[in-house]
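Subject: sequence -> structure tokens, single chain

Hey, anyone have a minute? Need the predicted structure for the following. Not urgent.
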Amino acid sequence: MPKSDDHEDTAVIYTDGACSGNPGPGGWGVYFKWGEHEKELYGSDKDTTNNRMELMAAIQALETLKRPMKILLYTDSSYVRNGIMTWMANWKRNGWINSQKQPVKNADLWKRLDEAASRHDVEWRWVRGHSGDIGNERADRLAVKGRDEAAGRG
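Reply:
Had a minute. Here:
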């Protein structure tokens, strides 16, 4: 009988975004761990926002997986976690219009995240950024690397 903290069959993923200016050059980072395997991903955009990079990190993490999986996804972005867990159902029901009767910001990425998440069993968890959590710190370093490359400092 597996212990409740045994995550051999579960991918543990940390995601983070970074931006210099808002908008400005940005980067996203992903740190995966499943069983004995680890993987890091990062990317960038020369003109973006922090929220778009936070979303892109989660999208890239979920789209990279080749088969449906059980996932614990950690983000330090309340925007991403609240959006996927609380706000999205209403946005979809209201034709991607928010509670202020305005088009949802970053709807293109929210729709892409919704599609990517639908292929997996994702448990969304929030982690405080810059608090010493090893997975979050690794994702942050990758996002900063992407941001610095976008800004021409890589």
